[in-house]
Amino acid sequence: MAASLGRICRSGFLKSNNGSLFNQSSQFSTVKDWSRSRKAMVSCLGVAVGGVGALIYSLEQSVKAFELIAHPPHYPWSWEGFVNSLDHASMRRGWEVYKNVCSACHSLKFVAFRHLINVTHTEEEVKAIAEEYQIKDGPDDKGEYFMRPGKASDYIPNPYPNEEAARAANNGAYPPDLSYIVNGRHNGENYVFSLLTGFCDPPAGISLREGQYFNPYFPGGAIGMAPPIYDEVIEFEDGTPATTSQIAKDITTFLMWTSNPEHDERKYLFIKTLAVGIVLMAGCYWMKRHKWSTVKSTKLAFIPKKKQQ
Ligand SMILES: *[C@@H]1O[C@H](CO)[C@@H](O)[C@H](O)[C@H]1NC(C)=O
Predict the structure, then answer these.
(1) How large a percentage of the chain has pLDDT more than 90?
(2) If you measure from the C-alpha of residue 131 to the centroid of ligand 1, how many angstroms do you get, rounded to a whole number?
(3) What is the percent of the chain where pLDDT is above 70?
(4) Does 9 show up as a binding residue in the annotation?
(5) Is the pLDDT of residue 286 over 70?
(6) Which pLDDT tens digit goes with each residue over 164-199?
(7) What is the pTM (predicted TM-score) of this model?
(8) 273 lines ligand 1 (CB under 6 A)
(9) Enclosing H/E stretch for 196
(10) Is 200 annotated as a binding residue?
(11) Residues 72-91 pLDDT 10s
């Protein structure tokens, strides 16, 4: 487009304008030399591609309208924006929520205790937390596996030995691993918060099976997880009132961190990049003005010779 525009400007407009505008434009046409059949084929191809695109779009739209599902609202999370870090006090409470509530069923298998050091807890606190857990280790010199207290380098143990055991204990539903749940669900943090706070009685006409609960934010509505949190289900060590929404917000912030452990570093890097970038941009601008000043302040004049008479 730009190239052809340039071509028109350079050759077309500077030449004397003999023919009509139509003739001129047909001179620049790239399809002028094409045969009729080739033109027809290209047209058909265009129509077909457009049609397939429209079909895919309409299917996509119809799939969206198909499920009866409540879309979570957008909540004003504290980490939103280009320069806001995660709320580490909230993450520390979120760890308490995971440990006392979620960890009964959900694993956090990609997080090690050491990851919490200097993020939510000090090194000593993390060592103490890890020692509360029993970790399966081995084999020892007799070839047997044994349990030992956890170390900071251990990964957080799974509440079930395998998926089958997890399903058997939960009416056939498999509690997903929570390490990357915020990134793994559409509308991540808003979904997690809405799901945790959104349990309600099923509307008329919907019957749930034994061990199922109704949650409008869960695809299909019937969820195998009982409402996990309610007011005062735990007590926060920092004295924050443990309301349902406070607990849901803290665990969501914590899970946001487990899904995006590089979050704070990424934003810090952005600030540094911006600072360096501004300096470099200013330098580039000055350089450009400097280098171009000769060119820009040069005046070219074309004075035709007078015709000899
Ligand atoms: C945690 O922070 C302390 C103090 O800044 C530092 O000495 C220590 O090396 C850090 N530990 C880790 C694992 O980053």
Answers:
(1) 72
(2) 20
(3) 88
(4) no
(5) yes
(6) 999 999 989 999 999 999 999 999 999 999 999 999
(7) 0.75
(8) no
(9) helix 188-197
(10) no
(11) 999 999 999 999 999 999 99
Within 10 Å of residue 63's Cβ, how many Cβ atoms? 9
User: Is 117 near ligand 1, meaning CB less than 6 Å away?
Assistant: yes
Q: Which of 113, 118, 265 best tests ligand 1's pocket when mutated (most atoms within 8 Å of CB)?
A: 118
Nearest atom within ligand 1 for CA of residue 117: 13
- 219 is written with which tokens? 């695809």
The whole-angstrom separation of Cα 126 and Cα 147 is 19
The SS3 of residue 266 is helix
Tokens matching residue 235: 């007590």
Nearest atom in ligand 1 to 122's CA: 1
What does the mean pLDDT of the chain come to?
88
Which ligand 1 atom sits closest to the C-alpha of 118? Answer: 1
3-state class percentages of the chain: helix first, strand second, coil last, to nearest 5? 50, 5, 45
Rounded Cα distance, 272 and 264, in Å: 12
Long-range contacts: 45-53, Cβ < 8 Å, 24+?
A: none
